[in-house]
Automatic annotation (TrEMBL):
The modification 4-aspartylphosphate is found at D56. InterPro entries: AAA+_ATPase, AAA_lid_NorR, CheY-like_superfamily, Homeodomain-like_sf, HTH_Fis, P-loop_NTPase, Sig_transdc_resp-reg_receiver, Sigma_54_int. Residues 5-121 form the Response regulatory domain. This is Sigma-54 dependent transcriptional regulator. Keywords: ATP-binding, Nucleotide-binding, Phosphoprotein, Transcription, Transcription regulation. It holds the Pfam family Sigma54_activat. CDD domains: AAA. Residues 146-375 form the Sigma-54 factor interaction domain. It comes from the Bacteria. The lineage of its organism: Bacteria, Pseudomonadati, Bacteroidota, Cytophagia, Cytophagales. Coiled coil: none annotated.
Length: 450
């Protein structure tokens, strides 16, 4: 089937035929379904070919707004356009917030439909090209592919590699952005479950009720809007690994349900009475001190001890500064290829600035900085001017000469500069740390030429 397909889901036969014919005349291959169940089947069968899903809002077995996440879950690179006979602004806003490409009213001109579908298809094509490029450039998720040779990283990798072949639950501890999900993927790839699914969910990204249905699924009729059975991520990960990121954000009610899964490898869907057996390994991650949270009653102590069967501390970037250079080089070449720029390297001063930074956002922050710098770069060599403002405090003037100046004025200048760098240029926070007023800080910045 050509990689230029549109899936049309509508229970009105005449409308399906009419819109299908219009789109076929524009060169699209059109697949049709009269209900959501059949539409999802076709979407699963032809995920690689379908660029756009054109779905009615009111279907016999589901509502378009509630079906939208399911369409995106099956085909995340496809774009979804919702259609309705009675469009409202509120529904349109909600649809766009939920990830729909557009929200159309039936009866509008065919020309408008064709234009919207073409725009959606072009976006889907672009997303596929980017995904393919990232797939080609990104290494496999293995411990060997992790960039860096510092002692803290080497120790963490060695520890994780020891537990990977087992079925033990693993708790990854470390600050946000340090690479905990990469460790989880590497543990999965080094285990006997590598050929089975690796399913990741961020526990802080969903409200409690939605998180429960996402994790455990529900039966038809369990609540208003539950028009069909839903498989949860726990079932999707059966035989493989379920990665629970930000586990400290899991509501207490769901902690009890997760504890049962760890103890019995079974759970009960919402609206069901019969338990479902699964064979799933849990790898969890947190940026909190879960032991302390458990002692203070904010996290179930019995669940903590079940999760912390084997704990791996993922080191922050500022604890392995010798890894900054190879990581920066990797991200630079990655984004140069992605942006189709001829960036061959960076000035020595750029690396100096990167080494001096505090990296509170860890590897994720470094990645974002290099992406931004690659976008701004106008030559084949990255310069300090391409870096964000907070990296340029030390780039002006002679730091070596200033360091030898022991006058009170020079000491004050160096301290203000250091705190500004530490706070990322946040002047209110810098003033608070320095113990001076914001107006005074602005005056000092102007006085010292910072």
């Amino acid at each position: 089937m050509p990689h230029n397909s549109v899936l049309l889901i509508d229970d009105e036969n005449n409308l399906r035929q009419l819109l299908g014919r219009v789109l076929e005349l524009e060169g699209y291959t059109v697949l049709t379904a009269s209900n959501a169940h059949r539409g999802l089947e076709l979407l699963r069968e032809h995920t690689q070919e379908i660029l756009v899903v054109l779905s009615d809002v009111k279907l016999p077995d589901g509502h378009g707004l509630s079906l939208l996440p399911r369409y995106k879950a099956v085909a995340p690179l496809a774009e979804v356009i919702l259609m309705t006979a009675f469009g409202t602004i509120a529904d349109g806003v909600q649809a766009m917030k939920s990830g729909a490409f557009d929200y159309l009213t039936k009866g509008d001109s065919d020309d408008q439909l064709v234009v919207v579908v073409e725009r959606a298809a072009e976006k889907a094509r672009l997303q596929r090209r980017v995904a393919e490029l990232e797939k080609q450039l990104a290494p496999q998720f293995t411990f060997d592919s992790m960039i860096g040779s510092s002692a803290p990283l080497t120790q963490a990798k060695a520890l994780a590699l020891r537990v990977a072949p087992t079925n033990s639950t693993v708790l990854l501890e470390g600050p946000t952005g340090s690479g905990k999900e990469l460790f989880a993927q590497a543990i999965h790839a080094a285990s006997g479950r590598r050929s089975k699914p690796f399913v990741a969910v961020n526990c802080s990204a969903f409200p409690k009720d939605l998180l429960e249905s996402e994790l455990f699924g529900y039966r038809k009729g369990a609540f208003t809007g539950a028009l069909t059975d839903k498989r949860g991520l726990m079932e999707e990960a059966n035989g493989g690994t379920l990665f629970l990121d930000e586990i400290g954000e899991l509501p207490l009610e769901l902690q009890a349900k997760l504890l049962r899964v760890l103890e019995t490898q079974s759970f009960t869907k919402i609206g069901d009475t019969k338990p479902i057996q699964v064979n799933v390994r849990i790898v969890a991650a947190t940026n909190r001190n879960l032991r302390q949270e458990a002692e203070e009653g904010h996290f179930r102590s019995d669940l903590y001890y079940r999760l912390a069967v084997f704990t791996v501390a993922v080191p922050p970037l500022n604890a392995r500064r010798e890894d900054i250079a190879p990581l920066a080089e990797y991200f630079l070449h990655f984004y140069a290829a992605k942006l189709r720029k001829r960036l061959r390297g960076m000035e020595p001063q750029v690396l100096t600035q990167l080494q001096r930074h505090d990296w509170r956002g860890n590897v994720r922050e470094l990645k974002n900085v290099l992406e931004r710098a690659a976008i701004l770069a106008d030559t084949d060599t990255l310069t300090v001017d391409d870096l964000p403002t907070e990296f340029q405090y030390f780039a002006t003037g002679s730091v070596a000469n200033e360091a030898s100046d022991k006058t009170l004025r020079a000491l004050e200048k160096r301290q203000i500069r250091a705190v500004l760098q530490e706070t990322g240029g946040n002047k209110m926070e810098a003033a608070r740390q320095l113990g001076i007023g914001t107006k005074t800080l602005y005056r000092k910045i102007q006085e010292y030429g910072l």
